[in-house]
Backbone:
């Protein structure tokens, strides 16, 4: 490996924190979804780094499964956002505080 | 190569910050594409070639097209009019972020292992090894993942269908 795995972990930590900040600070549901994607990518980066560190392929298989999960999550989440926008004409999550349809 | 890693790492962080800080969701989406491409480059530098290709095909290809499609469909380019957060919420969120950062940083730096050593090159990341693991040791998770995609497909079609009154 060209860099110590420590630096990969720190980079992944920074990306994860940027994702957390996006979820906490922004009120736009689309941006919150993008931040969740950022967090998933940060975890993937950490998995790849440690897969390389342990000379094992298991981490990359986990990354494959996480990507499958991300694709499923995004398709369902964006469908929910479209349905919400159709009903409420807003995607500001502070105004969406009811669970009934 | 080491310099390239740190350069791309900086690019990743900066584009991720732009994703979060930008007021216009379309710019955020474009910055997210840049972020995914730089993460794919990092995977290449970490010798995970299969994951790098997957990152570009799935994230930059499929997921971002979906995001941009929804943004254009809903006409969301005017978030600036939305109300801002309260001061207390902002302070609490920042406090939480700083606590997590310091905690994980401490764990990483002070961990007992040899995390700070640079390692020899290897052939772990080639597609043959990943495919072998995927279809032998991880066959059941692989099939469950396909089931998950089927469920997501059905759920999306049901949610996106316009209700007939």
Residues:
């Amino acid at each position: 490996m060209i860099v110590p795995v420590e630096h990969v972990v720190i980079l992944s930590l920074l990306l994860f924190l940027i994702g957390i900040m996006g979820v906490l600070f922004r009120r736009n549901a689309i941006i919150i979804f993008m931040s969740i994607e950022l967090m998933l990518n940060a975890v993937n980066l950490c998995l790849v780094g440690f897969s390389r560190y342990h000379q094992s392929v298991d981490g990359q298989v986990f990354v494959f499964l996480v990507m499958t999960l991300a694709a499923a999550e995004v398709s369902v989440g964006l469908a929910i956002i479209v349905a919400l926008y159709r009903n409420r004409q807003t995607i500001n999550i502070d105004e969406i505080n009811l669970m009934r349809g | 190569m080491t310099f390239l890693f740190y350069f791309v790492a900086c690019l990743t962080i900066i584009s991720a910050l732009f994703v979060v800080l930008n007021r216009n969701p379309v710019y955020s989406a474009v910055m997210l594409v840049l972020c995914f491409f730089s993460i794919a480059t990092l995977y290449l530098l970490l010798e995970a070639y299969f994951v790098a290709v997957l990152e570009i095909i799935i994230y930059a290809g499929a997921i971002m097209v979906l995001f941009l499609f929804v943004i254009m469909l809903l006409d969301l380019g005017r978030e600036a009019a939305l109300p801002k957060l309260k001061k207390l919420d902002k302070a609490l969120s920042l406090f939480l972020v700083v606590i997590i950062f310091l905690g994980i940083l401490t764990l990483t730096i002070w961990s007992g292992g040899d995390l700070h050593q640079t390692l020899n090159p290897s052939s772990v990341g080639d597609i043959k090894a990943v495919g072998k693991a995927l279809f032998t040791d991880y066959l059941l998770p692989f099939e469950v993942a396909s089931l998950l995609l089927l469920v997501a497909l059905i759920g999306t079609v049901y949610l996106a269908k316009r209700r007939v009154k």
Q: What stands out?
A: Chain A touches chain B through 70 residues (CB under 8 Å).
